[in-house]
Design a protein that fits this description.
The chain starts with 5 loop residues before the first helix and ends in a 7-residue tail after the last helix. The chain has a domain of 64 residues: Nuclear Transport Factor 2, Chain: A. The chain has two helices and four strands. 19% of the residues lie in helices and 39% in strands. A hairpin with a 2-residue loop joins strand 3 and strand 4. It is α+β, with helices and mostly antiparallel strands and 97 residues long. The radius of gyration is 16 Å and the shape is elongated.
């Protein structure tokens, strides 16, 4: 997804934090966070899968490249990796799990 301005990005982030099932909270738990002047990395987990009912925890890591433009910091790039096999097993489409 490409957001063409700050408002679109913020609205997309807010929308992604609204669960499709109103009984579920924001399910991402940040486990650790590292940063330097122009990079941020964080590890996260979703317990029991994205629906809260799976038998596998989904774990991931994101690294962000940030850049200062005038007096604001902006995300230039986000690189993300997560446990795809655990996710696929959780939704029942992984034959090797």
């Amino acid at each position: 997804m490409v957001n063409h301005n700050r408002t679109d990005f913020i609205n997309a982030q807010l929308a992604s934090q609204q669960p499709t099932n109103a009984t579920l909270p924001n399910i991402f738990i940040t486990e650790d966070l590292f940063h330097s002047c122009d990079k941020i990395a964080f590890r996260w987990v979703v317990k029991n899968g994205f629906d809260g009912k799976g038998k596998y925890d989904i774990r991931g890591i994101d690294t962000l490249d940030v850049v200062k433009v005038k007096d604001h910091w902006k995300i230039r790039a986000d690189y993300s990796e997560w446990n795809n096999v655990g996710f696929l097993a959780g939704i029942g489409v992984c034959a090797v799990c």
